[in-house]
Write a structure and sequence with these properties.
With 383 residues, the protein is of the alpha/beta class. It has helices spanning 11-14, 18-26, 67-74, 84-105, 117-126, 143-150, 152-158, 162-166, 231-249, 281-285, 297-306, 317-328, 342-350, 352-366, 371-382, and strands spanning 2-6, 30-35, 48-50, 109-113, 130-133, 170-174, 188-189, 214-218, 252-256, 272-274, 290-293, 310-312, 332-334.
Length: 383
């Protein structure tokens, strides 16, 4: 069986799909990944093709969005449905490159990243089944039922209708822990197996220090972005805050995924370690007691798998949804950039309830079905 994995160029979308791709490949199937941009570097040794343009939803290409769409991306959305117009726009943008990649490979089945309408459109055009692979805690809902309404011109150009989309045999792979968000109806639950690409964790950071806390601090693959967020000003206030807290509490902080233009490693005070090179986040978290991050799906899933309490500072639409779900489960709390202070971080370090809840979710994830257990279901869908 030939299986094509279609991902947006954002690494966070492709990383969760790599374990299932390898499970299928290990079972003898011909697997290919088609993506672009940053995601090309995280395909985990799988055959990969570059289908072209940069992600229109990325920070550097945001001016391509209409003003109304830009506002949605940076809004504090409560549901995915509020962002459907943006998702429709993104689907239209990626249809042509994804269709070209699929026609070249001629797959028997397509696996595409979550909420990527171009994946379903490509499957409909080729007449093959489609599997949507989740990347976090978001719920797809009725997005694909509404897709034809969102991109009528694109479908007309391709000679497709809503009926063609509805006729595609579909499945959903859901990697969210059910205790954090209800499973999507009919979805195939899958344990999230962290894949962070290559890299080496320094030896002195692989184990937790005795007698003191160690907090991982990351702004994720996209950084702290938003129309009202000055990342440089935020870091200018944030780094001294961590240094002060390190002196007061004897905690240490490991900074990763932060633009080196904003940090002078030689001027960092004791208690702050800056890792310039890419490191596998999940392995680093084994040596940490908590994490402070931007609320992104990939970072949060790694923290859940590690069983760590979390403090998030969301600034972009999906990260607000992730952060609220995290807080509602009792795993920590979220604050705005202006609300982040010493007290918020001290609370993270002393929150025993969050630590206990994080251990529960970690055990829950460990009990979810593995990628190998889904191979037969994927094969059956393609028959």
């Amino acid at each position: 069986m030939r299986v094509l994995f279609l991902s947006t160029p954002q690494a966070k979308d492709l990383l969760p799909m790599v374990p299932l791709a390898w499970a299928l490949r290990a079972n003898g199937h011909d697997v290919r990944v088609a993506t672009s941009g940053a995601a090309l570097a995280v395909a985990g040794g799988l055959p990969v093709v570059d289908f072209g343009p940069a992600d229109p939803g990325s920070a550097e290409a945001m001016p391509e969005l209409e003003p109304a769409h830009r506002r949605m991306v940076w809004s504090r959305l409560h549901t995915v449905e509020e962002g459907w117009p943006v998702l429709g726009y993104v689907a239209s943008t990626f249809v042509d490159p994804m269709v070209r990649a699929a026609r070249e490979f001629r797959p028997d089945l397509i696996v595409h990243s979550q909420l990527q309408g171009a994946g379903l459109v490509t499957a409909a055009l080729l007449g093959v089944p489609a599997v949507e692979h989740g990347f976090g805690l978001l719920r797809t809902g009725r997005f694909y039922d509404e897709l034809a309404r969102l991109i009528p011109a694109t479908l007309e150009r391709l000679g497709l209708t809503a009926e063609h989309l509805a006729a595609v045999p579909r499945a959903v792979v859901d990697i969210a822990p059910p205790s954090m968000v209800p499973a999507q109806e009919g979805a195939w639950l899958l344990r999230h197996i962290p894949h962070n690409g290559g890299g080496v964790v320094p030896a002195d950071l692989r184990r937790r220090p005795e007698g003191r806390a160690r907090v991982a601090v990351t702004l994720g693959s996209m950084g702290l972005i938003g129309p009202d967020v000055d990342a440089e000003a935020f870091l200018g206030r944030f780094l001294p805050l961590l240094a002060d807290l390190s002196r007061r509490s004897d905690a240490e902080f490991v900074l990763i995924g932060i633009d080196p233009r904003h940090i002078d490693p030689d001027s960092l005070p004791s208690g702050l370690t800056y890792l310039r090179e890419w490191v596998p986040l999940r392995e680093l978290l084994d040596g940490c007691t908590a994490i402070l991050h931007q609320g992104g799906a990939g970072t949060m899933l790694n923290a859940l798998d590690a069983g760590l309490p979390q403090l998030t500072v969301p600034a972009v639409a999906p990260n607000f949804i992730h952060s609220v779900l995290m807080q509602d489960r009792g795993l920590g709390r979220w604050v705005t950039p202006d609300e982040l202070d010493v007290e918020a971080v001290e609370r993270l370090l002393s929150d025993d309830r969050a630590r206990a809840a994080a251990a529960e979710v970690r055990a829950e994830i460990a009990g979810m079905p593995t990628p190998l257990s889904l191979v037969e279901r994927v094969e059956a869908l393609a028959r």
